[in-house]
Design goal:
The protein has helices at residues 14-23, 51-54, 65-75, 97-107, 124-132, 148-155, 159-175, 177-182, 199-209, 249-252, 283-288, 290-300, 308-311, and strands spanning 4-6, 24-26, 33-36, 82-84, 112-117, 138-142, 184-190, 213-217, 242-243, 253-256, 261-263, 274-277, 314-315. The chain is α/β, with parallel strands linked by helices. It binds S-adenosylmethionine and iron/sulfur cluster.
Length: 317
């Protein structure tokens, strides 16, 4: 079971100390997961994602390789378990993404370097550059639906192009069994009523046939930054949601936008709760700074005064 967190030194009595040592874990002094939006923008229009609704309001740009390298260098040997190079964007749209994964491999060879993608741009050339070259060692594919009708309604992307890429990727893996054996590949599907009738077929296609994992993600309302009422295919999903007040993300994950803002969570795409900026401070300074520490302690006390996205975050788990 996932464990709740505590700050050592904050306990007021022996009972709390014992409870914390047995059932909880201390907030780490360096993030365990780091999510970096290397570049703004996506080519899809998923109805459950806030990107299509916010794309015209948010700043556009790309993180320089120099800034990215500064982050990777600082993370070397600090026990970061996983890097994920996206926020609400499509990482394969970033023309420098191969270089960025290579930088991570150079400084953090022991970490998982995850590619989470909608696969619409996952050509064989990209597969060779990223997976063949070993700079990416975990792949999460976002595929919502097995039929063209459901897929295109939910993701607003051409179905045939993605399926052609995925078929070619599967053939490539079959031709490279040594790589396939060591590569974790997961297909992510966001839990909506529209896709639910297709899950069994998706399982047969991706788990039974290809040997990938199929992961059904609980849909969240992106801290209420996603207007679900706007999206016809989601209309009946809103009633399934309930407040998400036992989230662990702010305790183990650092989220950086392309312009270097550290925000409280991956759902905070409007940059409402900023912890600091990587252009001015180090990862360590931001993570352990007084503001980030105060916010985590407020979360533990269930005080959401300064935590707007958390206050309004709902999930359909
Ligand atoms: C935001 S995307 C970014 C990377 C890439 N564009 C993709 O779709 O894989 C990362 C993951 O978040 C998931 N996601 C998007 N909106 C979500 C929501 N409202 N609740 C839960 N997961 C969501 C996507 O399905 C995807 O697996
Ligand atoms: S979920 Fe991914 S593919 Fe879909 S719109 Fe959001 S960022 Fe783009």
């Amino acid at each position: 079971m996932a464990r709740w967190y505590y700050y050592p030194g904050d306990e007021t009595n022996v009972l709390e100390k014992v409870r914390n040592r047995v059932f909880r874990k201390p907030v780490p002094d360096f993030p365990k997961t780091i999510l970096i939006e290397t570049q703004f923008g996506c080519n899809a229009g998923c109805v459950f994602c806030q990107y299509p609704q916010l794309k015209d309001e948010l700043p556009r740009g790309r993180m320089s390789n120099a800034m990215f390298e500064k982050i990777a260098k600082e993370c070397a040997g600090r026990g970061v378990e996983r890097f994920i190079l996206c926020l609400d964007n499509e990482p394969l749209m970033d023309g420098s993404i191969v270089e960025k994964y290579a930088i991570l491999k150079k400084y953090c060879p022991e970490s998982v370097r995850n590619l989470t993608t909608n696969a619409s741009l996952l050509t064989l050339e990209k597969v060779e550059q990223l997976i063949g070259a070993g700079v990416v060692n975990e792949v999460f594919l976002s595929v919502n639906g097995i039929t063209k009708e459901v897929y295109e309604e939910l993701m607003v992307l051409p179905f045939e192009r993605t399926m052609k890429n995925l078929d070619a990727f599967c053939d490539w893996l079959r031709a490279h069994p040594d790589i396939k054996q060591n590569l974790r590949v997961r297909v992510n599907v966001v839990k909506t009523r529209r896709v639910a009738p297709e899950i069994a077929q998706m399982k047969a296609r991706w788990e039974d046939k290809e040997g990938f994992e199929l992961h059904v993600i609980d849909m969240d309302n992106r801290g209420d930054q996603l207007d679900m009422g706007k999206e016809a295919p989601l209309k009946s999903d809103e009633g399934d949601m309930h407040p998400n007040i036992t989230c662990r993300r702010p305790f183990h994950t650092m989220v950086l936008t392309w312009e270097g803002q550290s925000v409280i969570c991956c759902v905070d795409y409007k940059r409402e709760v900023k912890l600091g900026n990587i252009h001015e401070q180090s990862v360590y300074e931001i993570w352990n700074g007084p503001w980030a520490t105060q916010l985590r302690k407020e979360y533990l006390a269930q005080d959401f005064t300064h935590l707007k996205p958390c206050r309004t975050c709902k999930i359909n788990s």
